[in-house]
Amino acid sequence: MFSCFNHKNPKYFPASKTFKTIINYAIMKISVQVNTPILGNSIKEKMNEICRKITGCETVSGYSDDADIVLFIGQPKPSKKTVFMQSVSAGVNHVDFSLIPENIKIASNADAWSVPVSEHVMALLLAFTRKICQSNTELHNGIYKRLDDKSYIVLNGKTLGILGYGGIGRHVAGLANAFGMKIIAYTRTYKPDDISEFKMPDELMKLSDFVLISLPLNKYTRNFVDKSLLSKFNGYAIINVGRAEIVNHSDMIDFLNNSSAYYLTDVWWDEPKINEKIPDNVIITPHIGGMSDNIEQQFIYACKNIKNFLNGSPKNIVRRDDYI
């Protein structure tokens, strides 16, 4: 047993001023649930180990009928005692909120994936602007060919419009600034002080040389980028490292078939089954933006937020109304 004393959390345990109540919550159990076939037992064991070390709580692999907290990948299953659920994933669009009682707080792991995903954004951008994919394929086929100078685009001085200015959007802005890019952004929920220019989506699309989609997928953002928004874009490329469904499928395909602009994306509709011909003006990767040689950092970040919860100050609490 790992003691997990909660002495600072009156918001979630309002009666904790009494010694009797402290004893009732002295031992907190965390259920570590990995409900996806992609990840093996070693990942589950590592998550348990990290969670025990950071929180000091007892952890159990899989569902537990007396778990106070659930750390999860995939669809989580709470117990009757569960009061808090922490996602390891950045998004929670895969969660069926109708199965989660309203009294349970759910937190995303949004900021934890900012570094690898942001680096992937820059990799997609540079692969496009420097024609790296094309040159690599041609050279492997014995073709030594250079395009005209204007085919190679310099990022310096170009405008990057960011749809969704959360952890990933802000981190990409920092990297893009290092390349000398101008940043404009749109965020649905608030206006951060560090946005040099805040624009509404229509204007952002008109003004941007490149547009990054880093919105979370929920009922408000599904099909957010549609025919109307796409018609405003006259830049070089749109980048998507959010979720495929933020973009209307048929509208994007029509746009690509009638435009010289590119779609640089780490996601695709109905992945991993892709039953259509991908347009030539698409550079795509198989949802690897969050993968890295330091994946443990994402587990650590999630477990630290469980500790934040125990201390009464959890971050990234999900607004249920966005998903129901």
From TrEMBL:
What InterPro entries does the record tag this protein with? D-isomer_2-hydroxyacid_DH, D-isomer_DH_CS1, D-isomer_DH_NAD-bd, NAD(P)-bd_dom_sf
Record keywords, A-Z: NAD, Oxidoreductase
Query: What PROSITE patterns does this protein map onto?
Result: D_2_HYDROXYACID_DH_1 (PS00065)
Q: Which organism is it from?
A: Acidiplasma aeolicum
The D-isomer specific 2-hydroxyacid dehydrogenase NAD-binding domain sits at 122-289
One cellular-component annotation, GO: cytosol
- TM ranges: none
Please state what the protein is called.
Answer: D-isomer specific 2-hydroxyacid dehydrogenase NAD-binding domain-containing protein
